[in-house]
Amino acid sequence: MTVFEKIYSVVCRIPEGKVATYGQVAALAGNSRWSRVVGYALHRNPTPGKIPCHRVVNREGRTTASFAFGGEAVQKGLLEKEGIKFGKDGCIDLRLYGWRPQGFDFEENDL
């Protein structure tokens, strides 16, 4: 399995109504130092309707201005359709909406 395939496999496991951070996806894919690789892989998403890259946000719970499929507003809209609410600061509350896969412990800075 390639690095991108590992990343896509993790992203496909993020349930609707939840988000994961780039660092979290990297750690679950096998290397916590792959955060930037995660971003690049998501930018290269071969099947946007199938791989829900809109569910990946930064460690502050912010969407990305360079969301590959139409910009930040599109990512925000997709997340809102899934029931995710944004704070006044434009961030998602990761304690409320952050994905926590069973059997995987995260440090606070991994979220």
Computed CA radius of gyration, to the nearest angstrom: 13 Å
Low-confidence stretches: none
End-to-end gap: 25 Å
What percentage of amino acids are in beta strands? under 5%
Q: Indicate the CATH topology.
A: Arc Repressor Mutant, subunit A
Please count the beta strands (DSSP E, at least 2 residues each). 2
Overall geometry: globular
What share of residues is helical?
25-40%
CATH class: Mainly Alpha
**Major beta-sheet overview:** 2 strands, parallel
pLDDT average, as an integer?
Answer: 89
CATH superfamily: Winged helix-like DNA-binding domain superfamily/Winged helix DNA-binding domain
Query: Strand arrangement, largest sheet?
Result: 1-2
**Number of discrete domains:** 1
Architecture per CATH nomenclature, i.e. the level-2 architecture: Orthogonal Bundle
| Number of DSSP helical runs | 5
Helix and strand run: HEHHEHH
Structural class: mainly alpha
Blueprint (SSEs and pairs):
Elements: H1 3-13, E1 20-21, H2 22-29, H3 35-43, E2 56-57, H4 72-81, H5 94-97
Parallel strand pairs: 1-2
Task: Describe the model.
The protein is mostly helical. It has one domain (about 5-100): Orthogonal Bundle (Arc Repressor Mutant, subunit A), CATH 1.10.10.10. The chain has helices at about 5-15, 20-30, 35-45, 70-80, 95, and strands at about 20, 55. Strands 1-2 form a two-stranded parallel ribbon. Helix 2 (about 20-30) crosses helix 3. The radius of gyration is 13 Å and the shape is globular. The relative contact order is 0.20. The model has no long low-confidence stretch (mean pLDDT about 90).
